[in-house]
């Protein structure tokens, strides 16, 4: 009879307790939910203004420094293509001619944000902090 009791006790202790494993799984689930909620994407929000039939003529006393970015990330200033490294020098030159001029970046909607940021950084290095982004779309 004593053999049966020992054997019966061994069977009762052989069950696996899943409670600690479930506790760990729930703690990991809570950790991933909390960390995932803090991830936010960084984007530049641009809205194209509606087309206005009666556009105001540009102010000739205070012209803007216009930098155009085409869809293939080419940079154009004053009807000529320039390199990204020459943007700062051109902005400095044009800003010396018109000290109150703002930099207007006309970026094609298919151009990359990398080019806009490079131009904005070059303008800030040239001590021009009034920078505007104007998205456009070419008509074919």
UniProtKB/TrEMBL annotation:
Gene3D superfamilies cross-referenced by the UniProt entry: 3.30.420.270
GO biological process, one term: protein transport
Membrane topology recorded in Swiss-Prot or TrEMBL: Single-pass membrane protein; Single-pass type II membrane protein
GO molecular function, one term: transmembrane transporter activity
The keyword Cell membrane belongs to this UniProt entry's keyword annotation: yes
Name under which the protein is recorded: Biopolymer transport protein ExbD
Regions that span the bilayer: 21-39
PANTHER family the UniProt entry points to: BIOPOLYMER TRANSPORT PROTEIN EXBD2, EXBD MEMBRANE COMPONENT OF PMF-DRIVEN MACROMOLECULE IMPORT SYSTEM
């Amino acid at each position: 009879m004593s053999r049966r009791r020992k054997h019966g006790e061994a069977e009762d202790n052989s069950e696996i307790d899943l409670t600690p494993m479930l506790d760990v799984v729930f703690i990991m689930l809570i950790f991933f939910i909390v960390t995932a909620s803090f991830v936010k994407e960084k984007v530049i929000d641009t809205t194209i203004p509606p087309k206005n039939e009666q556009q105001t003529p540009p102010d000739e006393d205070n012209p803007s420094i216009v930098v155009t970015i085409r869809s293939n990330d080419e940079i154009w200033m004053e009807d000529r293509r320039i390199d990204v490294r020459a943007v700062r020098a051109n902005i400095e030159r044009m800003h010396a001619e018109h000290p109150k001029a703002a930099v207007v970046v006309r970026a094609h909607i298919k151009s990359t944000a990398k080019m806009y940021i490079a131009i904005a950084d070059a303008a800030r290095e040239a001590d021009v902090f009034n920078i505007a982004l104007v998205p456009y779309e070419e008509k074919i």
